[in-house]
Amino acid sequence: MRCNTKADTQQLNDCHPQKHLYAISDVSEKTGVNSVTLRAWQRRYGLLNPTRTEKGHRLYSQSDIERIQLILSWLDKGVSIGKVKPLLEYSPANMVSAEALDITSEVIESIDAFSKESLEKTVHQLLKEYPLSVLEKQFFLPIQQHLDGMDTPLSDAQRAFWVSLCRKCFISTEAQIKSNAKQLVVVMSFDSECGYQLPLELLRAKQQGQQTLLLENYTGSVLGVDKMVTQIKASSLVIGGANSLSSKVLNDLKAWLAKMSIPIRITGMITQIHPDLLQFCSNETLFERKASKQEPEVKP
Question: What pLDDT is stored for residue 39 in this prediction?
Fold first, then answer.
């Protein structure tokens, strides 16, 4: 049973019009930080201190939102979440050069040792504590670049191990997020090999309050995807990939995307291999539209 957080918030705002308050779902939408991460920042690191309704639901002020944005600005510079609190007294204009996430080198050592259990625990914890946008830039990309640059007898096995582990963590985290949203995003790829980019996109869409459908390793005609998207009334489309497309698939794909009326996002190396596909991408704010939703609040 869902709690009517929106109604509680409106009632408090009516009583205190001078201090507008926001439900956690609204804050998540405004800042791009999912509710699980917001709770972790409060409980584990003491970075936030929202007020509560009589039923215990978190309510955030405009100053809380500004503080979240300041936290994000430090994370974007590579500061680990555990080291942010002492830095919050500084303004973004006074930021100095910060270190990269110090967990990265430790993770690389664990990959070298094939330490499955410790790595899964670490990645799951990071997914709770950091926005995906930060992890992509400060964590997953540097690790992938490091692994791609390796040339040892074990390097292929280490890359495969890391990709498989990331996929498992993304998919399990995505499955734990419950959403009653009506929007459905299709995430697909024409690649024959499975990377972790598509499960990451599934998790991103789910965190944004969308239902998801994965179509991986697609080798059929584009017409088949067109009919499927129409039949299920998909609200947006994500195409990921790391490999080049054949001339026929590329031409068919362009013809299909040109007539699409839903938001489209294209990600991965495919955007560099076929940069002309980017002309079909929707404005990011349009893609990230979310269905109106009320997120259940879970008290610690």
Answer: 95
